[in-house]
């Protein structure tokens, strides 16, 4: 089961960087970008995170919080955040609770072998916690600008 456009996203709490727990319901009143990436400190994930980092002031101006999610452990997330100077929380979803909620675990093929992994995906929630827009199978170049435009449009 996956969240659907226009429907409320079920509440969740998950461990995040900075020794914090991110609870979705605590973010009501703000728009929320939840973006899923396959693995910390890999090239595509570093580029995508850097794009969100560099545009954070514009997301802030659009009343939008950014949260990154992967299955990496909290130590890997902390290292990734520190090394890349990310200015937003990264969730460690080792048990895949948040991944399952958004249905982002997909069968992938690498070097001829199949495995289950995170499909690069982004979700934009409105101020009431409803899913406003989703992007699945994301290609990194230009993606963050598209999400930012959607966040700005949602404010109007």
From TrEMBL:
Gene3D superfamilies: Glutaredoxin. Thiol-specific peroxidase that catalyzes the reduction of hydrogen peroxide and organic hydroperoxides to water and alcohols, respectively. Plays a role in cell protection against oxidative stress by detoxifying peroxides and as sensor of hydrogen peroxide-mediated signaling events. Monomer. Keywords: Antioxidant, Disulfide bond, Oxidoreductase, Peroxidase, Redox-active center. Its EC number is 1.11.1.24. The keyword Ion transport does not apply. This is thioredoxin-dependent peroxiredoxin.
